[in-house]
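Page 42, continued from yesterday. The earlier attempt failed because a stray header line got pasted into the input along with the sequence. Redoing it now with the clean sequence only.
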Amino acid sequence: LDSRLQLARPEYPVRLEAEPIWDEQIREKLEQIVFERTMQQELYEANLHPTKSAIFTGAPGVGKTLAARWIASKLNKPLIVLDLSAVMSSFLGRTGNNIRNVLDYAKGLDCVLLLDEFDAIAKRRDDPIEVEELKRLVTVLLQEIDGWPPSGLLIAATNHKDLLDPAVWRRFETIVEFPMPSEQEVKKAIELYLGGVKEAQDWAEVLSLAFRGLSYADIERD
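This time it went through. Structure tokens are written below.
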């Protein structure tokens, strides 16, 4: 009510223009999450449950949000994105209720919930700069993650893992670190972004040197 913004942005169906580019280790972890969700009935029968929470870390533009969209697409599930600009109410006392409302809403759906820019609401509680209300907010968030049902998948994404409260890491079953793209991955990305350009391979060889050290988002934009 404060901002007149949606607390959460739903996306369904999730459509990707092309298959994302990741190194083998990243792809294996993401495919493992998808595989477990597709085999969840067998896991329940064995008194196990599929991965219910994961946290993605890495620099901006390396594919964290894209990975959440890819998982939702593979599972054919709605993707619910927590909009922090709406949730972080100017009336701090309401922020905890806002977050609870979003998480309670997502718990009732068979969906993938993405908590983007996670470090904005899960900062270290020993940071003397933060006000007490924000520290209590971290506690609320940790409690909600602890109680997350295995029927849904909760994903958090952060660009600044050093800002996160240490207790956050124990709450997530899977941690996926997204590195900056390698030279070979830069070449693949350039070929992908150039689309049907006839000389795409030749350009990729040249441009991969100029774009070395950039994220996928920077490469696509440039």
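Notes: The radius of gyration is 19 Å.
Reminder to self: strip header lines before submitting.
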